[in-house]
Amino acid sequence: MPFAIKVLCYRFKMLLLKLVGKVLPFKWPTVLEGPGSALQLCDNIAAAGHQRVLLVTDEALAKLGLIDPIQQKLSTAGIAVTLYDGVQPDPTVEQIEAGFSVLQQHNCDAVLAVGGGSSIDAAKIIAARAKNNKPVADMVGLFKVRKGMLPLYAIPTTAGTGSEVTIGAVVSDPARHMKLPVVDTKLLPTAAALDAELMTGLPAAITAATGMDALTHAVEAYLSRMSSNKTDALALEAARLTMLNLPTAVADGKNLEARQNMARASHLAGLAITQVGVGYVHAIAHNFGAYYHTPHGLANAIVMPHVLEYSLPNCHERLAELARACNIGSASDSSTQQARAFVERIRQLNQTFNIPGQLEALQLSDIEAITDAALSEAHSTYAVPRYMDKPQCQQLIGQMLAT
Ligand SMILES: NC(=O)c1ccc[n+]([C@@H]2O[C@H](COP(=O)([O-])OP(=O)(O)OC[C@H]3O[C@@H](n4cnc5c(N)ncnc54)[C@H](O)[C@@H]3O)[C@@H](O)[C@H]2O)c1
Ligand SMILES: [Fe+2]
Questions:
Q1: φ, ψ at 168 (rounded to 5°)
Q2: Model confidence pLDDT, tens digit, residues 74-87
Q3: Nearest ligand to the CA atom of 172
Q4: Which domains does the chain have, with CATH numbers?
Q5: Does residue 189 carry a pLDDT above 90?
Q6: Residues 161, 299: Cα–Cα separation, whole Å
Q7: Which of 120, 169, 351, 374 has the fewest CB atoms below 10 angstroms from its CB?
Q8: Secondary structure (DSSP) of 277-322
Q9: How many CB atoms lie within 10 A of CB 272?
Q10: Mean pLDDT across the stretch 43-66?
Q11: Residue whose CA is at the smallest distance from ligand 1 atom 34
């Protein structure tokens, strides 16, 4: 089939998805915001009458002592807290099953995720596993979490994924080089706390990478052809907050104001993508994660300038609007110049954060399979501004080979 006809088919599919999106029952979480809000969330959990909570986190965070005050507060409120700290970056089915078995042993009636996107995603699927008597593999895909999940509460400790407000969770299958999405409106947490106090110890490199994930969400949501006035406002504000605060949060991790603004940016960007999806940056980055375990935000940061450069002819007005919202470029410049200035700023940010333009781990021999997987992901779900065919995508990925 000629590529132009294929593009028409993709666009038609996206139109249908947009219509479906309009009737989806999003039940947004209650959001507490500000330093100290994590402990306030514990009051909410107690007020909801939960008695046995499974606290899902990763070992590094547990060792840092970040969760101690939370555990204490819940215990003081008479709640039995069981810790599951077996989540690792890009959680696997095994880690989720292990968490589920702890949940069963202790008969938990709610789940609290404290951590980055990996802990929150794992907690979502553990909580869903508790209500749906089927293996994780059978929940992969769209709207397969039929019976909902146990009440889930989320305290993000990174500012990037926005997972506390998205309908998605990602599970990794390292053996098959795949990152599999579980997507369902029933995966939305009951409540979340955006608390910068938990983020001040996040190392600079992870702050940078996760912050670039938030920026990618804002940009891809804004460029999506499914976007609406509502998601545009969320994406523009998320981009503006990130451009303004991420360099400070990276340079001065203890700066609570910059951290809190990044937590908000990540959240707003999450709200936007969960309604309109992402784009080629994520489609390619997911596969870098699946093949090489490249951290999600880092992969996005590397891929984003390449994809924006390719997309620019079809979206220079939208990129220029992003530039103006972020105060980048000059008002007297043409929209193409402003769009270029925006892409250039992303490159500069990467440079400042020591994020390379290429991916060291990328193997020439993997490019074809990565291309196939990325195109299949993008063309079934993302309303991108400019489609690419296989040779174009291969060439774009080839630009990221380390020289
Ligand atoms: N569900 C969604 O909507 C969604 C969106 C984007 C990404 N994701 C997924 O989320 C995962 C990535 O999550 P992430 O980028 O937040 O990273 P992460 O959760 O994998 O954490 C990265 C590292 O940071 C450490 N860390 C986290 N918070 C810390 C803190 N406050 N102080 C010190 N160290 C801390 C962790 O211990 C870990 O080693 C990927 O699997 C990605 O696919 C999900
Ligand atoms: Fe992301």
A1: -115, 160
A2: 999 999 999 999 99
A3: 1
A4: 26-198 (3.40.50.1970), 204-398 (1.20.1090.10)
A5: yes
A6: 13
A7: 351
A8: ---HHHHHHHHHHHHH---HHHHHHHHHHHHHHHHHHHHHHHHHHH
A9: 32
A10: 97
A11: 202
Residue 389 banded pLDDT, cuts 50, 70, 90:
very high
Q: Find where tokens 């990037």 sit.
A: 160
More confident residue, 228 or 20: 228
Helix (H, G, I), strand (E, B) or coil at 254: coil
| pTM of the predicted model as reported, rounded to 2 decimal places | 0.97
Residues with CB under 6 A from ligand 1: 58, 60-61, 64, 89-90, 115-119, 121, 157-158, 160-161, 163, 166, 168-170, 179, 198-199, 201-202, 206, 210, 213, 296-297
Using N-to-C axis directions, what is the helix angle for 204-223 and 256-276, rounded to 10°?
40
Strand order in the sheet with 191-194: 30-33, 191-194, 152-156, 110-115, 52-58, 80-87
Each residue's pLDDT tens digit, 273-308:
999 999 999 999 999 999 999 999 999 999 999 999
- Pairing between strand 152-156 and 168-173? unpaired
pLDDT at residue 25 tops 90: no
